[in-house]
UniProtKB/TrEMBL annotation:
GO terms for cellular component: polyphosphate kinase complex. The keyword Metal-binding applies. Its EC number is 2.7.4.1. An intermediate of this reaction is the autophosphorylated ppk in which a phosphate is covalently linked to a histidine residue through a N-P bond. Mg(2+) binds at R383, R413. Gene3D superfamilies: Endonuclease Chain A (3.30.870.10), Polyphosphate kinase middle domain (3.30.1840.10), Polyphosphate kinase N-terminal domain (1.20.58.310). Coiled coil: none annotated. This is Polyphosphate kinase. Its cofactor is Mg(2+). Residues 339-504, 511-674 form the Polyphosphate kinase C-terminal domain. Belongs to the polyphosphate kinase 1 (PPK1) family.
Length: 699
């Protein structure tokens, strides 16, 4: 009865739960692992991604929910449920997902290992010679690194680290003739490879390191009775929402460093454990961490499927997965050999990654670092590649005496430590470095190169939706703009003055920014389409984003739908809007594209009665994007580039190979090409420089 009541309440809400929507997104990623048209190794890759995604979900989203529960704060989810009923619903759904995740691994993928030149075997399945090799590896490499930590009346409970595999070994001793059980914890260091690799003539054998340790576990318990050996893994709260300081005078870098330490000992929100664990140990763990069965996930297979990355990335199989085509030249940049400083004086360039390489941006920055005419470089940085060429260029520019200003966002989740280290390197080289704006996260992506050319100074501007990360630029779809247009240059220069100094410009001509005006300006654009529809004029909205969650904007889209505006949304992940509900959103459709590349671009199209306005940039339609982040959307003013951006949206809407259609109840169904319909895969079509010469109709 209670279950039906909860389900009815969720169905009645005009919003979809953010967290339940996220879990549905991870199901779409899991669907890639089930796709028999993909290679075996690509399927393993997507399964590993679902595991990484779920880890972050528990650390951040479930962690956030526990912030409310643990601090006694009230919270009502978009579904209409309060904290405790929602916790039950969310964790029930998470259990269902994990069951489906392991069903995919055990039933669909494990049987295919042998056919693909590899296998995951236990020590007991190895030959005698192979077991001797495993024994030697244990003695020389594993054993010296492991530290047993007993918990009993004389030893306190040890700090167990987040997301490390841990053995809980229950032993029994007789003190004064009375049997006494105690538990000892052994954590497996993260710098040990998850699998011990053995080369056989016809295949590579991957032996889980935990199986080798279990095989030799008695080495740690000489002359002691072992009652049970249990492998588990914990996930701790990594969300700091309620703890973040509003003290603008605080040393914010030190604050972030302190928070990184607390991440290691945040409250436990999930316990993954092998089948049939010791009830003695489980009772201790549940009491210690204040968790119950809803937080416990029993795993009947390989614990932590992120381990599959070692197989996917193995040198023996590097050519067995997806083969990325070579990038194609941007439509607005006819050849690679042009002098970008000269070309950009007369032309704007729109880049569509990864189909267009990020090289024009990186090359421009590297050349600027060496060019004696360049006076300065300003840049925002959110995420960087390992061995970043961007950082190297900025260091070189500083060494060459140029003024370099960099805003490093130290709240970029899970990249905090790297960004702090890179920022400190730049500081030592003489760069002016700002480590974020205390209570806001700087998520915008901007770069400006200031160059003296004769009697004048030219400002070269880059704005985009993606990070300055050469590695992910090959895996994420993004859009970016290179220009010397003075209006962009003025706006971006003003924006840098805002985020690095103390300036409040009245307005920008080509930029929309948050936290000040972005929500209001987007709402006004939506309302303008609604007014046109009511007047009988042509109208329409097409938006491509990662996430849609902000209630105020959702409500305006509902009103626009009622006014007759056709609204087409391409939302990769979270979508809290209900499409196709009678008398609410009948004119709204939602699709999600999940495939070989991570759809990361943000594009906003407003019909404007035949004179479209198109924006690109860093912002999704989320409360955090409007209220807690520094974001920017840029108007694509050049008519040719606007046409290109509209084409990107056009083919996104046509895609029938990677698309999922969202139903009114929040579920998704895979879109299939009809028998007479051309198969359109946008992760392939843009390598053919897809572009319609005629104006395309988006709505």
């Amino acid at each position: 009865m209670l279950i039906n009541k909860v389900s009815d309440q969720i169905k009645k809400s005009k919003y979809i739960s953010r967290d339940l929507s996220w879990l549905r997104f991870n199901y779409r990623v899991l669907d890639q692992a089930r796709d028999t048209n993909k290679s075996f190794f690509d399927r393993l890759k997507f399964l590993a991604i679902t595991s990484s995604n779920l880890d972050e979900f528990f650390m951040i989203r479930v962690g956030s929910l526990y912030n409310y529960l643990d601090y006694g704060k009230e919270r009502t989810d978009y579904s209409g449920l309060r904290e405790l009923p929602f916790r039950k619903k969310l964790l029930d759904y998470a259990h269902r997902f994990v069951n489906d995740q392991y069903l995919t691994f055990n039933s669909e993928l494990k049987p295919l290992f042998a056919k693909n030149g590899c296998d995951i075997l236990k020590v007991s399945e190895l030959t005698e010679i192979e077991q001797k090799k495993a024994d030697s590896y244990f003695k020389n490499t594993i054993f010296p690194l492991l530290t047993p930590m007993v918990f009993d009346n004389y030893h306190g409970f040890p700090l167990l680290m987040n997301q490390l595999l841990t053995f809980g070994v229950v032993t029994r001793t007789s003190d004064e003739g009375k049997p006494q059980d105690r538990v000892t914890f052994i954590q497996i260091p993260q710098n040990l490879a998850r699998f011990y690799e053995i080369n056989r003539k016809d295949k590579i054998i991957f032996v889980p390191i935990e199986d080798i340790i279990r095989w030799k576990i008695k080495k740690f318990f000489r002359n002691v009775e072992i009652v049970s050996v249990n492998l588990f893994r914990i996930t701790r709260n990594g969300d700091f929402t309620l703890e973040e300081s509003d003290d603008l005078e605080a040393d914010f870098v030190q604050e972030i460093k302190a928070k990184l330490k607390t991440r290691k000992k945040g409250r436990v929100v999930r316990l993954e454990v092998e089948r049939n664990p010791s009830q003695f140990m489980m009772r201790i763990l549940k009491e210690r961490w204040t968790i119950d069965n809803a937080n416990v996930f029993t795993i009947n297979s390989l614990l932590d499927l992120r381990a599959l990355w070692q197989i996917v990335n193995h040198r023996q199989f590097k050519d067995k997965g997806f083969k990325q085509p070579s990038s194609v030249p941007p439509l607005s940049l006819p050849s690679d050999g042009v002098d970008m400083f000269e070309y950009l004086k007369e032309h704007d360039v729109l880049l569509h990654h990864p189909y267009n390489s990020m090289e024009p941006v990186v090359n421009l920055l590297e050349r600027a670092a060496e060019d004696p005419s360049v006076l300065g470089i300003k840049q925002t940085i959110y995420r960087l590649a390992d061995q970043s060429r961007v950082t190297a260029a900025l260091l070189k520019a500083a060494e060459n005496g140029k003024h370099v200003s960099v805003l490093f966002e130290v709240k970029a989740r899970f990249d905090e430590e790297r960004n702090i280290k890179e920022g400190e390197r730049l500081e030592k080289a003489g760069c002016f470095v700002i480590y974020g704006i205390s209570k806001y996260k700087t998520h915008t992506k901007m770069m400006m190169i200031i160059r003296k050319e004769g009697e004048k100074v030219t400002r070269y501007v880059h704005v985009g939706s993606g990070n300055y990360n050469e590695s992910t630029a090959r895996l994420y779809t993004d859009v970016s703009l290179l220009t010397t247009n003075e209006i962009y240059a003025h706006d971006v220069s003003e924006f840098f003055n805002v985020i690095t100094g103390h300036s409040r410009p009245n307005e920008y001509k080509y930029l929309m920014t948050s936290p000040k005006n972005m929500r209001h300006q987007l709402i006004e654009l939506i309302r303008h389409e609604a007014r046109n529809a009511k007047k009988g004029l042509k109208s329409g909205i097409v938006i491509k984003i990662n996430s849609l969650e902000d209630r105020e904007v959702i409500d305006e889209l509902y009103k626009a739908s009622k006014a007759g505006v056709p609204v087409k949304l391409i939302v990769r992940g979270i979508c809290c809007l209900r499409p196709g509900r009678e008398d609410l959103s009948e004119n709204i459709s939602v699709k999600s594209i999940v495939g070989e590349y991570l759809e990361h671009a943000r594009l906003y199209y407003f019909h404007n009665n035949g004179d479209p306005k198109v924006y690109g940039g860093s912002a999704d339609i989320m409360v955090r994007s409007f209220d807690r982040r520094i974001e920017a959307l840029f108007l694509i003013a050049n008519e040719e580039l606007k046409h290109e951006a509209i084409n990107v949206l056009y083919y996104n809407l046509l895609d029938n190979q990677n698309s999922y259609i969202m139903r009114e109840d929040g579920t998704y169904v895979k879109k299939r090409a009809g028998t007479a319909e051309e198969a359109i895969d946008i992760h392939k079509v843009f390598y053919g420089k897809a572009f319609c010469e005629q104006e395309v109709a988006l709505v």
